[in-house]
Amino acid sequence: MLASPGTAVDSHCPYCALQCGMSLTRTRADGAPPLEVRPRDFPTNRGGLCQKGWTSAAVLGVSDRLVTPLVRGTSGELEPTSWDVALDLVASRLAALAAEHGPEAVAVFGGGGLTNEKAYALGKFARTVLRTPNIDYNGRFCMASAAAGMNRSFGIDRGLPFPLSDVGGAQAVLLLGSNVAETMPPAVQHLAGARAAGGLVVVDPRRSATARLVGDPSTGAAERPASAQPGEGVHLAPVPGTDLAVLLGLLHVVLAEGLADRTYLDERTSGFDDVARSVAGWWPERVEAVSGVPIGELRRVARLLAAAAPVHGGAGAYVLTGRGVEQSTQGTATVTAAINLALALGLPGRVGSGYGAITGQGNGQGGREHGQKADQLPGYRKIDDPAAREHVAGVWGVDPETLPGPGMPAVQLLRSLGAPTGEQARAGGPVRPRALLVHGSNLVVSAPDASKVIGRLKSLDLLVVCDFVPSETALLADVVLPVTQWAEEEGTMTSLEGRVIRRRAVVAPPGEARSELWVLAELARRLGAPQSLAFPTDPAAVFDELARASAGGPADYSGLSHARLDADEASSGPGLFWPVPATPADGSGTQVTGVTRTSDTAGHPGTPRLFLERFATPDGRARMVAVDHVGPSDDVRPGAPIYLVTGRVLQHYQSGAQTHRVAELERLVAEPYIELHPVLGSRIGVADGARVRLTSSRGRVEATARWTDAVRPDTVFMPFHWSGIGSVNQATTDATDPISGMPEFKVCAVDLTPVPDSPAVRGDARRTKELSP
């Protein structure tokens, strides 16, 4: 039931994994927008919001909101229809394809923005009703390499195994591949301690907004942030794709100069000797030759981190990674090297120090914990573990033998779509998915090598998209189902810290929009699911089932319920960190599996900090794993002599399906652009403000050139929030990390040429002159 008009309701931002706390107030009595948004003093944002958060309510009332099901008619256009017609069509075609080709002919692609309840229900639906192994989600593009590295080294994956607020007290923070000043601006305040101590180190080939937080004594005062002081931290700008070499060099210096915490290594880790041998050859001179990072800067950073480590009496240090180093064919290896460095300094498992990965999508953490990932069951269980299968099947009321095995990771799944060609058909092999259900993802813009993905989507026998706006992917669909969003639904999210929080309904959904929980329940009924295989539509009931399914798993939510989370918030609690196992009535803390859910609010207090006593490995020790630098899969060469790196801008989010519909944000950044150094612009004849063409071996894009000395002369930067001719993912490679399956979004080789007859469009002669070499 919706709160009355004028009543502030606590909830969270619909965008990134920082999940900033906000209060929402409905101003109309009929339950419709508009909605007033105000920030809350929540631990992650502490009363702050970014531009996206402040304008988030605008998406609720966009003019092209999907309000009725659409089916592609005989004219070839999407036409309005009833829910019964749309769902009957989807169910009949799914059943026919499965009957003819087997259950593997149907695939599901989820999203990191779905609530925990919807992510759980989607995984359950795929594996019990469709019985297909082919489910993955766009979180494969976000946290897969960090997850693989943390699982391998720590035995568990929680992006930040500590509260973000802990970082604020650190003396040093090494931040690799994350531009938090633009992607999640309220998080910058948690870097204040390191900045004040001169210990913020940013590794990025661009002088991004985050890198500009770092002062450099050689930088003119006009180019430093007003709050920066000379010598405040370090910005390392390596050759794109060489971050792993930098990490290996840092560990080499730590060991060579006797800066490691040997007692910690002896007591809490295994594999150190192999790692020490593997970095012996990465002396600073070699690192400089490979990465371009000067020897003196490498030594300076290693010593700065060591001085902040507890073993040397420092106030604490953190090593944090983001997509810039993880979206790589050596992303898992890079994360592993970052963890090795942190372990050598004795950081993980100590209050005020550690390693963490900064999750990007709103529910990127929870989305992978509860069944959207190709190889996982709820509770972060492995789908090929017989005990895990038995437990989850028991909760679902099915035979464990009927559950499919591991499916294909996202990029492989997308490559496999569509009917086989003549040669493929003759060769036989695995069944190729001919139908795809898409939930909370805009593949046309967000997938690598996007032109090929578009072709594969068009080749499907059936494409069904659940969305709340007509995204580029929805416009290709055979059936579009309008679903609820953000402030129209109840549920839970799990933030980048593993903090489980409540999302609340404040306004009524428009038209005939329905929750995906209802959609899945209706499809299950139409596809003949037995009554014993329940698909509840009440989010609280779905969460209770999720909690039972997660019991005993690494991501144990069995001690949580909507009622407990509500009670925690009512008493000024900030949400609870998993694992939160159910506890017996005597409060002894012994984990109970297969518990019956109640509305009791007492129980396990949650686990804000992991690894304080032991790591989640069989012997309790963190595993150090030797890795080596290879380089990007698509390196520079004649014909493609320039590195392309991609990323975000402050005003837009992911594929831009939401933010491009917010007039205020669209006015601020209305079109894509390509940043290039003035030296490069002059050499290739591209003026500041002119149109420029970027070409890779996969495709080409065009955008406006922006001259800036914030990017290396051998590198260009392009944001990825646009479709069409300005869609940079038409040029990116779909080469993947062999362990995580994450694609190498962040670096590839391109050529850059002027678009013929394209003069500068901004007419900013003064700026062009200032930046000319």
From TrEMBL:
Task: Identify the keywords attached in UniProt to this record, alphabetized.
Answer: 4Fe-4S, Iron, Iron-sulfur, Metal-binding
Q: Which InterPro entries match?
A: Asp_de-COase-like_dom_sf, MoPterin_dinucl-bd_dom, Mopterin_OxRdtase, Mopterin_OxRdtase_4Fe-4S_dom, Prok_molybdopt-oxidoreductase
Pinpoint the 4Fe-4S Mo/W bis-MGD-type domain residues: 6-64
As given in the record, the signal peptide range reads none
Show the PROSITE patterns listed in the entry.
4FE4S_MOW_BIS_MGD (PS51669)
The lineage's top-level taxon is Bacteria
Q: Which SUPFAM superfamilies match?
A: ADC-like (SSF50692), Formate dehydrogenase/DMSO reductase, domains 1-3 (SSF53706)
The coiled-coil regions, if any, are none
Which residues lie in Polar residues bias regions?
A: 588-601
**Region Disordered: start and end of each range?**
212-235, 585-608
User: Could you confirm whether the keyword Iron-sulfur appears in this record?
Assistant: yes
Q: Under what name is this protein listed?
A: Molybdopterin oxidoreductase family protein
Top-level taxonomy: Bacteria, Bacillati, Actinomycetota, Actinomycetes, Micrococcales
